Amino acid sequence: MAAGVVAAVVGAWITLGGRTDGVDATTTDVPRPTPTVAAPTRPPSPPLASRTPRKPKPTTTPTAPKKPTTTRRATAGAGRPERISLPQLGVSAPVTPIRADHGSLTPRPDPRVVGWWSGGARPGSTVGSAIISGHTIHDGGGAFDNLEDLRVGATVVITTTSGRITYAASSVTNYPKQSLAGQAAQVFDQTRPGRLVLVTCEDWNGQTYLSNVVVTAQPIH
Question: Which site among 35, 49, 85, 120 is 20 to 30 Å from 73 CA-CA?
Fold first, then answer.
């Protein structure tokens, strides 16, 4: 998708930055050399006659120290998302790709299915914002109905074609429609370190939605 794509996410016109494909880099730890310690010099042994017999010491087999275990939950590489889970909200919904047709980006017609913008970063990418948008239904039934209730620190699990990636919500922001349009370049940035961005509508006034809820989440390593 070319830079400066104008997209309407659930009713708000926004500008999405151009996509920058990131290359996942794998860091290899170089083993450090094991330091050597010189053995201390022992004094000369006394004559055999003057030695005092010693009791033999019991022999023990040294136990190798256990390596510290670390949990890496965002281990999958970049992949096409297939399902999103929000445990705090009790949400599990399928994810399908969506495109910006004629500059307009809208969620899937089925409110129980959310859409991933295929012109942006994939979940698990080291660079770019992976954008997933979904409907809110004012009388219930939308996958993202209660997205505004997600707490900072809550986990978001994305199942992709490469595996499962766990994110932690870092911000939950309610943007008035026009305000989101002005902040779109930052919110949907495709040049920043890899992250997840969730978007839906909010504030139904009986005729239309007045704002958008935007959740940003960082991968847990």
Answer: 120
CB 6 within 8 A of CB 22: no
Phi (first) and psi of residue 89, to 5 degrees:
-95, -5
* Strand 129-133 to 195-204 pairing: parallel
> Residue 190 carries which side chain, given as an amino acid letter?
Q
Q: Which residue has the tokens 């889970």?
A: 85
Q: pLDDT tens, 29-47?
A: 333 333 333 333 444 444 4
Mean pLDDT value across residues 161-185: 92
| Locus of tokens 């997209």 | 7
**Which pairing describes strands 129-133 and 155-160: parallel, antiparallel, or unpaired?**
unpaired
- Decide: helix, strand or coil at residue 89: helix
The answer to whether residue 14 scores a pLDDT higher than 70 is no
